[in-house]
Sequence to fold (694 residues):
Amino acid sequence: MADTPKSLASEIMLKSGKPTLRTIADLTGFAVTTVSRALSNAPQISAETRKRVHEVAAEIGYLPDRAAQRLKTGRTNVICVLLDPHEEILGYGISLMHGLAKALRDTPYHLIVMPNFINGANIDAVRHIVRNGMADGLIFSRTEPFDPRVRLLLENGFPFVTHGRTEFTTPHPYVDYDNFSFAYEATKRLIGRGRRKPMIILPPKRMTFSQHLLHGFMTAVREAGVGYEIPDEINLDCPVEEIRDFMSRRAAQRDAPDGFACGGEVSALATITGMSDHGLTLGLEYDIVAKRTSKLLSQIQPKVETIYEDLTDTGEQMGRVLLARIAGDETTEMQVLLKPQISFPTV
Amino acid sequence: MADTPKSLASEIMLKSGKPTLRTIADLTGFAVTTVSRALSNAPQISAETRKRVHEVAAEIGYLPDRAAQRLKTGRTNVICVLLDPHEEILGYGISLMHGLAKALRDTPYHLIVMPNFINGANIDAVRHIVRNGMADGLIFSRTEPFDPRVRLLLENGFPFVTHGRTEFTTPHPYVDYDNFSFAYEATKRLIGRGRRKPMIILPPKRMTFSQHLLHGFMTAVREAGVGYEIPDEINLDCPVEEIRDFMSRRAAQRDAPDGFACGGEVSALATITGMSDHGLTLGLEYDIVAKRTSKLLSQIQPKVETIYEDLTDTGEQMGRVLLARIAGDETTEMQVLLKPQISFPTV
DNA sequence: TGGCTCATTTAAAACGTTATAAATCCCATC
DNA sequence: GATGGGATTTATAACGTTTTAAATGAGCCA
Fold:
């Protein structure tokens, strides 16, 4: 452990642009191997050496070269998130990513995004990532009961966390929102306000959470013994104008619904607009209870009752679970079901 | 150039998990160097060899190892996008990223996102990326006239494209929206509808495009010789409720504005809500012309006139410009100013 | 002192690619 | 029949890290 004079230190620093293990080795007099070990806190390194190496590393601002680490270890230190085009609206995707990034802070992991250009579960991207080891873990939303992406990942033992559940018998990590409870509670509130014919706007049928929402809705409806309606023509993924037009048409017909459980803020706004085309007023002729994922709706339309889904928290939990899964941690609970905050939260 | 029998081929394939240059070399009988050259279409390789190597590579699904390439060349094949928390609303950030990803398709570039957790231009993230060569190029929004990030990047010759301009004398690549024209046109429309006291809701003053908007607004106002008002208490980054409350308060006072140029859809909705608190109706007592970046507003509130800003296109152009900048292409125009589509586009 | 163990440290190889420099080969030319 | 040169191909050395196996040194007992 040579005590390097200042001049030598700066000379060594100047010669090499970016500090590497070699730089620290030259500076301390240790071998590269020792430096590597000291920095990764390997047990066989003496406390004194470890301390000295850490000091020098901090001083010269050493940062391990990601490419070299990745090449050697096979670990990429990359988490990949698959982004669906439907996540564009109202910051859905960004909130999730923000939460993810929060969980990944102070870890070596980087977040790379792969937007899905084609519609539906993009199995090709997943296969590509798995086959070529492009990431250490995968995150995606909008699962289907027998989602081919989940099957592929399970078969290959590739770490991932879904936002949404499946119906495979093999359990896998997920962080999901309890959409049954949401729909059940939302519908009960509508009925509680005296509405006798609630309608629910569902996501496309193929997705798992569509079934959960439907189930919650039907449970509430049957318990109360009221009528109900489920539109076939529209879903939460439809363009705003289609939902609005549908509501407008429907309002003009007989036996129009008098309550709406909306799975998203946009569909709630579209419903209000469509209904108002026929002079129907929110709070008077009908009510809405909607899922709230941003601050927008409840501020713009305080008459819409909302139940909150915290997507940033969801993202953060997904990150946490994925890191545990990658680390092979068996103690962490890998399946998280987030309960709706049904206690009328204020923004 | 040995013609390898099938059995040997499969044997070689089996031995090594992931195909590498070595695999192709063994399969074709060429040296690793030759294979590398053939795949990168180096001029000194014979057409015949090149063809054969490409064939085999395609057949076994060879993909170059990113880590090895990065280690050797120093190029990361990564584009980093800095995400501001204010980009959360209405899919602003996601649209941009979608466009970016579109430009990066069929290139080796991956898109990594770094959300900004602290408020304001986060120079630390930029310094970290530059110093440690974490990416080949950088993308960010919400520039300030003398944005420290731009200065740092210019000083280091690091490739980047901003969404927004600066006032540095050294030119740098940007893709911006002509916010002067937007504000000018929006205000003229308000005046054209007979409004005599327009108001504009601006982004925080420190950002360059705030000045552009202000300038456009003032030009229109002065040309027409009408009154105007510019609120000091609120800006486009404010939470929805603050804008709504402000509008509500302002509507109650004397000489309330009768026209609003809104730089975002959310502020437009908040304005409508705030005004309606005092029984003022859009289209009757006042008008709004707003910037439209999603399908939401114009469908929900057809009475709000909108002028479109295509953020997906913006992202795509930014990607295109950045790739050209990285490639050192001098012919590509590095400064793009997107004109508002003032011709009353339909969604 | 020699031999043994345990605690540290080290040298060398490897990950998969590209760059540099050197080696072939083929053919035309003297 | 050598000589030179252009066209191809190749061996070797890196890039910065981790891993494997080997070396060094100190302490201890015989």
About this structure: Confidence is low (pLDDT under 50) at residues 1-7 of chain A.
